[in-house]
């Protein structure tokens, strides 16, 4: 899969998320992280103003890749196996940050919340029209999701960065999937798999009471 900046294509990234599910409806860690890396490459095409965002995403991806290359790697093969392994062995700070500030469960939760923002944002972009402003779509979807978990200073920085987003048509062209119409159609085809990954993760975390991990 090509994620280099010059061969970049958002469709491939979204399709990677589709390949995350095994036949037991479990989410495979490696393609999940691969999908995230692709999103970070896309974000990096939007300029240095977003580097504080991509740095945080990269460090979280790195935490998870380190688990995947550790002695415990087999326990991190799927999100489901990670949750049961970490909970069974008391490797998660459940109430406040303590011994395990970088558990897999809390790290994936941060990415999972960001995936909800992505879903709302791309869906609003898909259904918007040529008069819509990308920055406003982005602010609305952020306020409806991720902002609820961010302190004031991050919300402020994020909102300011959103004003630097390219106009809708440029944004859609930057996806590198052809014309604006083709980009919109691609979103319609690819977003359901993002939604499915989001929903399965959400149910898994809800079932184990992990949605508020510090
Ligand atoms: C297309 C425009 C892209 C805008 C990106 C929208 C997301 C704004 C998020 C701002 C995050 C700022 C940096 C640091 C945040 C961290 O404090 C939090 C919580 O982690 P903790 O501090 O508890 O360890 N991190 C997050 O919420 C994860 C953020 C990941 C954002 C990934 C965005 C991917 C963008 C894909 C673009 C197509």
TrEMBL record:
Broad class of the protein's primary localization: membrane
Catalytic activity: N-(hexadecanoyl)-sphing-4-enine-1-phosphate(in) = N-(hexadecanoyl)-sphing-4-enine-1-phosphate(out); N-(9Z-octadecenoyl)-sphing-4-enine-1-phosphate(in) = N-(9Z-octadecenoyl)-sphing-4-enine-1-phosphate(out)
Any one GO MF annotation of this record: ceramide 1-phosphate transfer activity
Domain of life according to the entry: Eukaryota
Domain Glycolipid transfer protein stretches: 27-176
GO cellular component: cytosol; endosome membrane; Golgi apparatus; nuclear outer membrane; plasma membrane
Compartments in which it is found: Cell membrane; Cytoplasm, Cytosol; Endosome membrane; Golgi apparatus, trans-Golgi network membrane
Any one biological process term the GO annotation gives: negative regulation of NLRP3 inflammasome complex assembly
Keyword Mitochondrion recorded: no
Keywords attached to this entry: Cell membrane, Cytoplasm, Endosome, Golgi apparatus, Lipid transport, Lipid-binding, Membrane, Nucleus, Transport
Pfam families named among the record's database cross-references: GLTP
Membrane topology reported for the UniProt record: Peripheral membrane protein
InterPro entries named in the record: GLTP_sf, Glycolipid_transfer_prot_dom
Keyword Transmembrane helix part of the UniProt annotation: no
Family membership: Belongs to the GLTP family.
Name under which the protein is recorded: Ceramide-1-phosphate transfer protein
Provenance organism: Salvator merianae
């Amino acid at each position: 899969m090509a994620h280099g900046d010059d061969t970049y294509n958002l469709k491939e990234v979204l399709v990677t998320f589709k390949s995350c599910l095994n036949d037991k409806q479990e989410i495979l860690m490696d393609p999940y992280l691969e999908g995230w890396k692709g999103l970070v490459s896309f974000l990096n095409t939007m300029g240095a103003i977003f580097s504080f965002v991509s740095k945080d995403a990269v460090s979280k991806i790195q935490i998870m890749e380190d688990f995947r290359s550790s002695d415990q790697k087999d326990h991190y093969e799927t999100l489901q196996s990670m949750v049961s392994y970490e909970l069974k062995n008391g490797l998660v700070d459940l109430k406040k940050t303590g011994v395990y500030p970088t558990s897999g469960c809390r790290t994936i939760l941060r990415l999972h919340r960001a995936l909800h923002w992505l879903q709302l944002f791309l869906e609003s972009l898909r259904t918007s029209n040529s008069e819509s402003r990308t920055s406003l779509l982005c602010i609305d979807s952020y306020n409806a999701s991720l902002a609820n978990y961010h302190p004031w200073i991050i919300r402020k920085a994020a909102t300011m960065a959103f004003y630097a987003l390219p106009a809708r048509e440029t944004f859609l062209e930057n996806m590198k999937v052809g014309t604006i119409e083709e980009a919109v159609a691609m979103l319609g085809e690819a977003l359901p798999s993002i939604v499915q990954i989001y929903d399965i993760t959400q149910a898994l975390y809800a079932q184990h009471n992990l949605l508020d991990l510090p």
